[in-house]
Amino acid sequence: MSLFNRYSAEKFKDDQDSYASVFEYFDKNRDGFIDTEEFLDLLQDLLTSDTDLKLLLNNEDVIFLFSHLDLDNDGHISLNEFKSAWSHWFRQILNPVKALVIVDVQNDFITGSLSLCNCPAGQDGSTVIPVINTLLEQSLFDVIVYTHDWHPENHISFIDNVSRRNIHHTSKVLNDDVKLFDRVVFEIDGMPREQIMWPKHCVQGTWGSELHPGLMVVENAFHVKKGTNPDIDSYSAFWDNNKRFETELSSILRKQQVTDLYICGLAYDFCVGHTATHAVKHGFRTILIEDATRGVSLDGIAKMRSELITKGVYFTESHQVPKLKSELRPLCLAVQAAINYKLAWKMIQKSIS
């Protein structure tokens, strides 16, 4: 059994007795420091995967994480450095603040005008609903967010509106030839803007824009609407596609002190994937719940998954989510926590100097 299970979730305490006893336990040679060899033992006890009780770590992983805790770069982690890491790095790993972001589980994507059943992958969007509901029933999350595609009638993504805007000269598809799912380059404010053409969907205030009636909607949840600008699409729940306008999602999560973002919903290769991408960029430890999302095309899903892996997103199934609250502690999430910790420390040092 891992020593760190004594300190996981609500058992975590940010006090001297806790961090000093853990430090002493791994300071095997009793020299008052944690060296890289002792740090390897610590990591093997701290981190676990869904397949191995003891995670196999390569030297590169160990050095990377060690360097983020060795704040003065002297090749050792002192008790003071360990104390700081305990309050910030260890806390993220052992006692994270978790948010579930449920992306666009709306009528139009399930049985309406842009039903995933009619998209190239032929997947049934309604199958995510019981999975998400089961997660909600377990009260696993500190914060719940529902996102809504919320388009005006004249939105740039609607194929019915293709003639409303000028086509840029670089577009390979012209007005008369545009079909669903084509990529058209419009001229907006004198600049090219590529846009995939979709059926009219999730128009503000319509039945299609409503959350599916089978989806559990919890009290005190946050609701974020996106895609409201007629001239810019917005797949991500954080930013529009041109990253010109930010939603309130990041602000909500920061105010709630969220560290870990669990993402599910529709569609995997578009709004879910882009939300996960921006979640990592905002510094959140990001987990995608794969059996709680469906996509538009199989190729698009595979491509998005590969991209998210390189960004450090952790993939899980819904039945594993409760374990992530306690005994399951993946390497990639520890790495993101280390990056967050070192960045915050540098910002503090810069403000002091």
UniProtKB/TrEMBL annotation:
Residues 14-49, 57-92 form the EF-hand domain. Its EC number is 3.5.1.19. PROSITE patterns: EF_HAND_1, EF_HAND_2. Pathway: Cofactor biosynthesis; nicotinate biosynthesis; nicotinate from nicotinamide: step 1/1. One of its GO terms (biological process) is pyridine nucleotide biosynthetic process. SUPFAM superfamilies: EF-hand, Isochorismatase-like hydrolases. InterPro entries: EF-hand-dom_pair, EF_Hand_1_Ca_BS, EF_hand_dom, Isochorismatase-like_dom, Isochorismatase-like_sf, Isochorismatase_Nicotinamidase. It comes from the Eukaryota. Keywords: Calcium, Hydrolase, Metal-binding, Pyridine nucleotide biosynthesis. The keyword Hydrolase applies. One of its GO terms (molecular function) is calcium ion binding. Belongs to the isochorismatase family. This is nicotinamidase. It comes from Arion vulgaris. The lineage of its organism: Eukaryota, Metazoa, Spiralia, Lophotrochozoa, Mollusca.
